[in-house]
Amino acid sequence: MRKVTLERTTNETQVSVSVNLDATGGKLGGKINVSTGVGFFDHMLAALGTHAGIDLTLSTKGDLDVDAHHTVEDTGIVLGQALAKALGDKSGIQRYGFFLLPMDEALAKAVLDVSGRPYLYYKATFTNERIGEYETCLSEEFFRALCVNAGFTLHMTTNPGGNDHHKTEAMFKSFGHALRMAVSHREGLLSTKGMLQ
Question: 0.85 exceeded by the pTM?
Answer without folding.
Answer: yes
